[in-house]
Recover the amino acids of this structure.
């Protein structure tokens, strides 16, 4: 009879999913990134930003969330009530699910850090869910039966068809380079952290254009300035969110923050080297450091901090982009999406095929 | 191919979207009913009157000095406009000529107010198209001119600078130096915002070619102020029919009316930004050429029977105070035509055919001031009570009052 080791087979995985790199940690990161985004945005605008709740207002996102949870929850009379209530819940669940695929830390990092959920083909699932999120936004707008919300939903639809494609193309470029469709495997193969030698640095040049395309498309996907047409405050009040209040709005805001964690996390994982930093330096002492971290529980702390550091850099870039621009009109966005972003992404695919098949063999890059 | 079938054109359903009475794009209550097909605006209906306070009626029961402070409360942004223009109207009616120094100081207050009003508009315009960074920056630098106005008049918003016969506060040499310094700073910042507005592509794309108001339409709908000047209609009371120190400013030959032939929101924006820089130069000229002498002249509280029209170019356009005096210390009739009122018709024209996304910036482009326009409301002075009544009741009461009290003015 097989003995079930309660501790290692039930409690640890449960804690793993619920607490540390799981739901609790992701929520913590969401609130932290929101604070950072707001603070950087405010400082760049010569304002103070959150100030009074906690150290420099660090608890403000949490306070806002709790306040919204305690507020009255209103449903419009004409809304499709059940679907209207379901949208925020599904959004929150799906956004948390997306973050489960991010390789942050691992109990046994020797064969490479894996996400909580990781299997061959999970990149496709992630792309599918991120498209689903956008469709949920459209549904949320239409279910609430308000002209503002419907206009916002229609705009989200148009935003989607123009920026999903460059986003997808940018995200599968690393998959093409490594020949895998699993997020964790792509990262470990590129860096050589799960055994193997990793890709040569020359491949890094190929990731620059997809990275830029990804960051711009991510800004559109998260509906931030200059792509915030779908909840343009001064035009259609808050677009598709206008009828949501109380707990539902709290859930929507939390889902948006978690999507920010996911977006920054994907940039970190696929383009910036994931939770590895020092061991990527080709010196013996750093190699030993990497081995030490991989065999030790210190690793959990180190990987988390590196992951957070790199994500924070991405958030800085995103907050900067938010500061610099005015809001585009939807027709300008669609035009920019199809005339600039999609051609750049497709051209980059072509370029990568040429480089992989002709240039690299010619100059001897393995 | 189903060539025999008639080609179907599917149009999106028409939806009516209200902008207002409460809307984030509007800082004051007003209602704009947009009929849209998809993102395109088919029809626009302007519905105002949410801010009716009865100031003209109230003015008939107060003395000229009291009215100065009443009309000042018409609008928080152009308080010196109404205050100064009413003082000017009373002086015209009393047929007194005020000292030169008072004229210069009154004009200085007006021009400083224009600077703050145009910077405020620029910030609002940035905000309407989602460019919040520039909005925060412009409003930060607006504080400079607000502080200057406080330095000059003692107040940030309702300046109360003017009185019938002159101004109430003098300009000292220290204050002049402080103001010259502040003006230098403002000019540098305004040049930066001018470049930001013109060269920041995301902002320029939102205002370029949007909300077209052709010159002929601007003329036929009697647009005033920067709205008209952005459509190449040369109306500016400061140059066409100058009063106070504008006569000296015009005669100095250093200043010209700013016009743009772009006819779109970009034209209006450029006119406003360049006017701000011109206003800064005007303030500097006024301070440097400030004549000596008294700052006010005594005017009898009772003004002889007279009928005058005082015109002044407010930041938003021509502001008219029409005053009838009857020999007592109270006016017989005061009629105020604020610039925003003249611009509604042209604005409804610019909204049609645009996108919903452009509606807020098109609304904002005339720099609407609802308080200026909806001046009239309900205050019961007899038993000192306030009550809320519907518009219809108000109309019935008004009809009744006018039936019982035939108009006193022939």
């Amino acid at each position: 009879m097989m003995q079930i080791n309660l501790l290692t087979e039930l409690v640890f995985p449960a804690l793993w999913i619920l607490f540390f790199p799981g739901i609790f940690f992701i929520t913590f990161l969401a609130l932290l990134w929101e604070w950072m985004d707001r603070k950087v945005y405010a400082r760049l605008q010569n304002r103070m930003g959150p100030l009074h709740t906690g150290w420099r207002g660090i608890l403000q996102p949490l306070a806002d969330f709790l306040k919204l949870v305690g507020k009255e929850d209103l449903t419009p009379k004409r809304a499709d009530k059940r679907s209207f209530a379901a949208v925020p819940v599904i959004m929150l669940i799906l956004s948390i699910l997306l973050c489960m695929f991010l390789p942050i830390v691992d109990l046994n990092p020797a064969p490479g850090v894996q996400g909580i959920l990781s299997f061959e083909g999970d990149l496709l699932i992630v792309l599918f869910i991120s498209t689903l999120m956008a469709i949920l936004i459209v549904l949320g707008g239409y279910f609430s039966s308000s002209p503002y919300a419907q206009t916002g939903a229609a705009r989200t639809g148009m935003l989607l068809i123009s920026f999903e494609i460059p986003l997808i193309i940018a995200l599968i470029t690393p998959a093409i380079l490594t020949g895998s469709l699993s997020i964790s495997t792509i990262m470990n193969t590129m860096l050589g952290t799960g055994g193997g030698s990793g890709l040569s640095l020359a491949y890094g040049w190929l990731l620059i254009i997809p990275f830029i395309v990804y960051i711009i498309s991510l800004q559109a996907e998260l509906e931030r300035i200059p792509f915030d047409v779908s909840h343009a405050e001064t035009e259609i009040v808050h677009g598709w969110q206008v009828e949501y209040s109380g707990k539902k709005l709290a859930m929507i805001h939390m889902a948006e923050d978690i999507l920010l964690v996911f977006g920054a996390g994907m940039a970190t994982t696929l383009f910036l080297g994931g939770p590895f930093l020092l061991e990527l330096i080709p010196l013996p002492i750093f190699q030993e450091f990497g081995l030490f971290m991989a065999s030790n529980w210190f690793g959990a702390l180190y990987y988390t901090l590196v992951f957070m550091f790199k994500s924070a850099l991405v958030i800085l870039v995103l907050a900067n982009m938010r500061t610099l621009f005015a809001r585009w009109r939807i027709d300008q966005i669609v035009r920019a999406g199809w005339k600039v972003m999609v051609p750049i992404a497709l051209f980059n695919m072509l370029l990568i095929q040429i480089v992989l098949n002709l240039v690299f063999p010619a100059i001897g890059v393995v | 191919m189903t060539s025999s079938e008639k080609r179907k054109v599917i149009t999106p359903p028409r939806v009516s979207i209200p902008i207002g009475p409460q809307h984030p794009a509007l800082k004051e209550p007003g209602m704009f009913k947009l009929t849209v097909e998809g993102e395109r605006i088919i029809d626009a209906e302007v519905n105002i009157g949410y801010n009716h306070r009865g100031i003209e009626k109230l003015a008939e029961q107060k003395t000229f000095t009291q009215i100065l402070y009443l009309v000042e409360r018409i609008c928080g942004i152009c308080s010196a406009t109404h205050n100064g223009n009413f003082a000017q109207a009373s002086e015209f009616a009393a047929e007194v000529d005020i000292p030169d120094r008072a004229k210069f100081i009154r004009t200085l207050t007006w021009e400083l107010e224009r600077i703050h009003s145009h910077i405020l508009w620029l910030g609002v315009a940035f905000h309407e198209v989602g460019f919040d960074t520039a909005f925060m920056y412009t409003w930060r630098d607006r504080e400079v001119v607000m502080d200057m106005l406080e330095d000059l008049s003692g107040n940030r918003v309702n300046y109360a600078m003017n009185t019938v016969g002159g101004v109430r506060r003098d300009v000292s040499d220290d204050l002049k130096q402080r103001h010259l310094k502040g003006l230098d700073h403002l000019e540098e910042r305004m040049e930066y915002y001018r470049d930001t507005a013109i060269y920041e592509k995301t902002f320029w794309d939102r205002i370029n070619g949007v909300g077209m108001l052709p010159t002929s339409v601007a003329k036929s709908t009697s647009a005033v102020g920067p709205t008209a000047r952005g459509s190449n209609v040369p109306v500016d009371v400061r140059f066409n029919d100058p009063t106070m120190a504008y006569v000296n400013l015009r005669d100095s030959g250093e200043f010209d009316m700013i016009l743009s032939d772009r006819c779109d929101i970009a034209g209006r924006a450029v006119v406003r930004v360049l006017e701000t820089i011109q206003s800064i130069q005007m303030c500097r000229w006024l301070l440097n050429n400030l004549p000596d002498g008294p700052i006010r002249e005594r005017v009898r509280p009772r003004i002889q029977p007279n009928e005058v029209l005082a015109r002044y170019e407010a930041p938003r356009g021509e502001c008219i105070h029409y005053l009838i005096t009857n020999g007592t210390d109270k006016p017989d009739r005061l009629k105020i035509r604020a610039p925003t009122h003249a611009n509604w018709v042209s604005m409804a024209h610019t909204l049609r055919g645009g996108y919903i996304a452009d509606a807020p910036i098109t609304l904002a482009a005339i720099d609407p001031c609802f308080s200026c326009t909806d001046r009239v409301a309900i205050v019961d002075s007899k038993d000192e009570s306030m009550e809320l009544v519907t518009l219809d009741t108000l109309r019935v009461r008004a009809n009744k009052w006018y039936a019982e009290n035939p108009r006193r003015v022939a």
About this structure: The mean pLDDT of chain A is 85.
